[in-house]
Amino acid sequence: MKFFDRCDRLIMFGVVFVMVTGVAMATGEGQGGSLGENEQCTQDSYIDTDGYSENGAGAWNQKIKGYDVDSFVSRIGAKADYQFSSKLVGELSGSYSHEFANQEVKIDSKFDRAGTSYRSTSGLVPDKDSFIIGAGLVGAINEKMVGFVNYDLELKDDFVGHTTMVGLRCSF
Fold first, then answer.
1. Which band of pLDDT confidence, cut at 50, 70 and 90, is reported for residue 106?
2. Is 0.70 surpassed by the pTM of this model?
3. Do 139 and 88 meet the contact criterion of CB atoms below 8 Å apart?
4. Which of 48, 52, 49, 50 is closest to 64 using CA atoms?
5. Is the pLDDT confidence value at 65 over 90?
C-alpha cells in the first residue's frame, strides 16, 4: 500500500535565503573555484492522513485512525564550487539542520471485530538535529539551459538518508 493513497493533504511551504559571495556559473570561461554561497532556509510541512481499514483477514483486519504530522525545519550551510571547464562546475556543500515541530507519531488501531478498543502504537522519536553533506555537477547545455545532478547524505543518530536529484534549469 502506498503512503500517498492514504494521504488526504500534504502541504509544504519553504523559504530559501541565499547570500552569494562568489560566482558559481557553468557558462563562464576558464577554470577555478570559490567558496560560493552560504544558505539559510526554512521548510514547513503538514501531512493529514485519513484513517483506513485493512481487508482480507476477516475479523483480524486492522482499523487505523487518521493522524496529522507537522514539521518545521531550519537549515544553515555553505557551498563551494570548482569550475572544471567553461561548461562544467562541481559543487560540494555542507549544512546543519534542526527540526522544531516534528514529534513522535502515535498510530491508533484496533481489530475490526466487535468489542475491541483502539490501542496506541508509538513510532520512532525523530532526532531533531542532522548534518547534510552534498556533492553535485552542473553543466551548461546551451546559453539558456543547464543540467544538474546532486547527491545529499543526511546523518542523524540512528538514521542515514540519501537523496539524489537530476534536472534541467531553463531561463526565458
1. confident
2. no
3. yes
4. 52
5. no
**How far, CA to CA in Å, does 15 sit from each of 69, 71, 72, 93, 131?**
20, 14, 11, 18, 19
Of 11, 110, 10, 8, nearest to 49 by C-alpha is 8
CA separation for the pair 82, 35 (Å, rounded): 9
What is the Cα–Cα distance from 85 to 104, expressed in whole angstroms? 48
d(CA 86, CA 135): 19
Nearest to 93 by CA among 83, 76, 80, 84: 80
Residue 128: count other Cβ atoms within 10 Å of its Cβ: 14
The confidence score (pLDDT) of residue 151 equals 95
Distance CA 62, CA 52 (A): 9
Cell of residue 113, nine digits: 471485530
**Does residue 147 surpass a pLDDT of 90?**
yes
Closest to 134 measured CA to CA, from 97, 100, 88, 169: 97
